Amino acid sequence: MRDGPLVDDAILPETHASAPISRLVAEVAAQCPGERITLGEMAEAFGDRAFGLLILLLCLPGLLPGMASVFGTPMLILGVQMGLGFHMPKLPRFIARQSLRRTDLLRLSSGSSKWMNRIERWVRPRPGPFTSPAADRVVGWLTAYAALMLILPGPGTNGPPAFGTIVMALGVVENDSKVVGLGMALTLIGNVFATVVLGALLWFGMEALGYVF
Q1: Distance CA 185, CA 90 (A)
Q2: Which end of the chain has fewer CB atoms at under 10 Å, N or C?
Q3: Element (H or E) spanning 76, and its range?
């Protein structure tokens, strides 16, 4: 799906000095002028890089309280398309029209956790087994699973899947096999954690209803 890293090799040393998420947000802002930036504009501007970039930007709100579920549906659609082997996103019109304010986009780039900042310093283009087309499909299905966890309400169930998916998407955009592999493991762990919590809540809810009735 990707022929190379996000940025041109000639400018890689200079641009890689900044944190990848902040640099990617700046690139989106430069490519998509306007006070609001739609998902359709981003998909069109970034072509075959759009999957990783859109998933990354949609998942960043998962690290901020109260914002995760809003972006779960577009993330679910992107994950399924990536899992099915699409090379570029094909967003339904109602999804393509969804937009982010430029100011919110910049706020998201500064909302990363200290663990995310540590991982960003480790990211660089490293092709390998986790940057293959088969791995892209696995990334897609893990993203779809994480999106479901973001959509379903539960205490503390947004952060772990969101964090893992951000790491995974960052590796996809930067063509870094090691970071993609790490992200896959973190996303799987986060998804399992969220599933167990939601399952426990459902079980306690059913038990409570049985007790009442």
Answers
A1: 27
A2: C
A3: helix 72-83
Mapped onto helix, strand or coil, the DSSP state of residue 38 is strand
How far are the Cα atoms of 10, 94, 159, 186 from residue 162, in angstroms, in the given order?
Answer: 32, 23, 5, 9
Q: How far is CA 91 from the centre of its chain?
A: 16
- Mean pLDDT score of the chain: 79
Q: Cβ distance 159 to 56 under 8 Å?
A: no
The strand pair at 99-101 and 36-38 is best described as antiparallel
To which H or E segment does residue 32 belong? none
Please name which of 202, 196, 166 lies closest in space to residue 184, comparing C-alpha atoms.
166
**C-alpha atoms less than 13 angstroms from C-alpha of 75 in its C-beta half-sphere:** 30
The model's confidence at residue 69, banded by pLDDT at 50, 70 and 90, is low
Q: Is 164 helix (H, G, I), strand (E, B) or coil?
A: helix
Output 48-51 pairs: Cβ under 8 A, ≥24 positions apart: 48/1, 48/2, 48/3, 48/87, 48/88, 49/2, 49/6, 49/173, 50/88, 50/89, 51/1, 51/78, 51/81, 51/82, 51/86, 51/88, 51/89, 51/136, 51/140, 51/172
Each residue's pLDDT tens digit, 146-194: 999 888 877 778 888 988 999 999 899 888 999 999 999 999 999 999 9
The letter for the amino acid at 124 is R
Q: How far apart are the first and last CA of the chain?
A: 54
